[in-house]
């Protein structure tokens, strides 16, 4: 990413997260083509709504042209409307589950959005629920609502009033689990109380989720923003030694350190005690992670699946992914096998059938 262009993008991102006025001088001389590239990037990174909070604070002479500003505004308004709808759907679901004696906790999405200056600006794709008890009873209840569910190894999903819902029986989806238990806690979206896992469980959830994306496919700035705003909000409540100890136990210590270092460098994350998180950071790994942020975007929203790549692209993909192995070696090999082996096996079978027919 060009240094001037990246400076503009990060200024919008940082100020949008915190609802601050950006330095307008950074936007001097931007052409419509430059603004179009900025708009394309915030879309790829799924931070359209967050960055628009900073754009709307720019003086009139420094804003993007109308041909870009109006679509940007429209998409931001849609994101906010969708976020409010998700909040309403969650409140209805919570009421229906609670009546049946089931108490799900919100994971990621809506919960971490509460840490942003303007929660509704954070783009979310679905609602993630952790059901620590009575999971099968919760599933039967969903069926009673005439909702069709789809079962996957790590969760069950269904649609409710046009919103996609994922129900998880386990908080951490990776095979390497922390030793800390999960206790219910709360965060607030303006005046609305949201039940969530405790801060230490949420730390390990956000980090392991981002690491799982990063190791094979890549990770985007939205993941980094989530970690930065959460850590900024709750750093005084977090036992840093405990989280880092559990990160070592799970095998993701290198990722945790470098991900936090990237948040410090890119988003200016700063608070008393940050040095504990960064003491083992190494420049070459921070660079690898930041390069992935710039090139990957939000994999869950915009990137192609590995199955659509050609054989030569898959080989390049694997080589690039190998550079990420030191961040969490044990999980890397599992994820590489899960993501690459099936498509490679199908290609091998097709080639074998082809040559048998030819001979």
Characterise the protein shown here:
The protein has helices at 3-18, 32-44, 48-55, 66-99, 109-113, 135-144, 199-216, 221-234, 240-250, 253-267, 274-278, 283-296, 311-322, 329-358; strands spanning 105-107, 127-130, 150-151, 156-160, 163-168, 184-189, 192-197. It contains 14 helices and 7 strands. The strands form 2 sheets. It has a 5-stranded mixed sheet. A two-stranded antiparallel sheet has the order 6-7. The longest helix has 34 residues, at 66-99. The protein starts with a helix and ends with a helix. Mean pLDDT is 89; it is low at 299-306. The radius of gyration is 21 Å and the shape is globular. The chain is of the alpha+beta class.
Q: Write down the Rg.
A: 21 Å
Following the backbone from N to C, one meets helices and strands in this order, namely HHHHEHEHEEEEEHHHHHHHH
Strand order of the largest sheet: 1-2-5-4-3
**Coarse morphology:** globular
Distance between the termini: 50 Å
Helix content: 55-70%
How would you summarize the topology of this molecule?
Layout: H1 3-18, H2 32-44, H3 48-55, H4 66-99, E1 105-107, H5 109-113, E2 127-130, H6 135-144, E3 150-151, E4 156-160, E5 163-168, E6 184-189, E7 192-197, H7 199-216, H8 221-234, H9 240-250, H10 253-267, H11 274-278, H12 283-296, H13 311-322, H14 329-358
Parallel strand pairs: 2-5
Antiparallel strand pairs: 1-2, 3-4, 4-5, 6-7
């Amino acid at each position: 990413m060009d240094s001037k262009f990246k400076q503009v993008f990060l200024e919008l991102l940082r100020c949008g997260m915190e609802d601050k006025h950006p330095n307008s001088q950074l936007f001097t001389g931007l052409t419509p083509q430059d603004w179009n590239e900025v708009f394309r990037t915030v879309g790829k990174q799924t931070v359209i709504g967050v960055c628009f909070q900073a754009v709307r604070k720019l003086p009139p002479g420094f804003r993007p042209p109308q041909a870009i500003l109006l679509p940007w505004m429209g998409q931001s308004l849609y994101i906010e409307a969708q976020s409010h709808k998700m909040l309403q759907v969650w409140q209805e679901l919570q009421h229906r589950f609670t009546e049946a004696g089931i108490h799900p906790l919100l994971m990621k999405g809506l919960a971490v959005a509460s840490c942003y200056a303007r929660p509704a600006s954070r783009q979310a794709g679905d609602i993630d629920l952790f059901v620590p008890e009575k999971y099968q009873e919760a599933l039967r209840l969903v069926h009673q609502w005439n909702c069709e569910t789809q079962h996957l190894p790590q969760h069950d999903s269904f649609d409710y009033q046009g919103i996609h819902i994922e129900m998880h029986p386990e908080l951490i989806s990776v095979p390497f689990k922390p030793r800390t238990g999960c206790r219910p806690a709360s965060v607030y979206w303006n005046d609305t109380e949201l039940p969530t896992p405790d801060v230490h469980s949420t730390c390990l959830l956000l980090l392991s989720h981002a690491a799982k994306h990063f190791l094979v496919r890549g990770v985007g700035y939205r993941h980094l923003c989530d970690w930065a705003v959460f850590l900024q909000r709750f750093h005084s409540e977090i036992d840093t030694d405990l989280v880092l100890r559990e990160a070592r136990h799970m095998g993701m210590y290198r990722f945790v350190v470098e991900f936090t270092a990237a948040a410090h460098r890119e988003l200016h994350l700063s608070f008393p005690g940050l040095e504990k998180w960064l003491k083992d950071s190494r420049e070459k790994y921070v660079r690898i992670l930041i390069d992935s942020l710039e090139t990957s975007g939000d994999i869950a929203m915009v990137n192609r699946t590995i199955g659509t790549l050609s054989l030569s692209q898959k080989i390049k993909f694997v080589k690039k992914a190998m550079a990420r192995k030191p961040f969490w070696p044990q999980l890397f090999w599992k994820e590489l096998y899960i993501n690459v082996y099936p498509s490679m096996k199908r290609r091998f079978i097709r080639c074998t059938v082809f040559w048998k027919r030819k001979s």
